[in-house]
Amino acid sequence: MKIVNFYLIVLIILGILSHIYIGVKVLAIKVRLIFILYIIAVCAYAVVLISGMTVLISIFSFSSMVIAIILHFLI
After folding, report:
1. What average pLDDT is seen over the chain?
2. What is the largest CA-CA distance in the chain?
């Protein structure tokens, strides 16, 4: 169980870092649609964190990392 918790904590940290990275990239290119989607993603992320749904948190963290990687290669 401790391994699972550690994995989730690492995923959450990576997710938050990639959210910050996405935010910086989005602000750099100033594309409104991506920025709106980013804000929605952050709000959803916060709701998930507050409600404590660990499975959803890991999905959000993973998806935000994927988005950050895609944005990195696009921009």
Report:
1. 68
2. 42
At 43-68, the pLDDT tens digits run 776 776 666 666 666 676 677 777 77
The reply to whether 49 falls in a domain is: yes
C-alpha span between 14 and 17 (Å, rounded): 5
Closest CA to 57 of 1, 2, 65: 65
**Which structural domain range is residue 67 located in?**
13-74
User: Helix or strand or coil: residue 55?
Assistant: helix
Tokens 């994927």 belong to 66
Q: What is the C-alpha to C-alpha distance for residues 71 and 75, in angstroms, rounded to an integer?
A: 6
Alpha carbons 66 and 30: distance in angstroms, whole number: 20
